[in-house]
Amino acid sequence: MLRVLITVVLLAAVAACSSVPPPPPPPPRGTTEPAPPPPRRAFIGDIRTKEFHREGCPDLENVDISYQRLLEDPGEAADEKFAPCKRCRPYEGW
Ligand SMILES: [Zn+2]
How far does the centroid of ligand 1 lie from the alpha carbon of residue 71, in Å? Predict the structure, then answer.
């Protein structure tokens, strides 16, 4: 009888232990993660005006996507005879 009682107590203890929720995961700490690499700078050439712009130049808002050409760098723009936009000045800071 005593053995049965001990077994019951042990089972109850195991059940109690297993019902304890796991500890919450540590809060995410974004500061410890490496910062994502900065977006690669791209240049957009307007094949109609033969001007090229920085990505996001307001002048590009009026340029249909079919007239836009992605350029890897100002050197490629120069090879393609694109002139730098006077508004966003894509050569500066390159
Ligand atoms: Zn521009």
Answer: 13
CA of 89 to the centre of ligand 1 (A): 6
- Phi, psi at residue 48, to the nearest 5°? -85, -50
CA of 28 to the centre of ligand 1 (A): 40
Is the pTM higher than 0.90? no
pLDDT tens for each residue of 35-68: 766 656 789 999 999 999 999 999 999 999 999 9
Taking the centre of ligand 1 as the mean of its atom positions, its distance from the CA of residue 35, in whole angstroms, is 29
pLDDT of 71: 93
12, two tokens: 């109850």
**Distance separating alpha carbons of residues 45 and 84, to the nearest angstrom:** 9
Residues lining ion ligand 1 (Cβ < 5 A) are 53, 57, 59, 85, 87-88
**Rounded distance between C-alpha atoms, residue 92 and residue 74, angstroms:** 10
Q: Give dist(CA 7, CA 70) in Å, integer.
A: 74
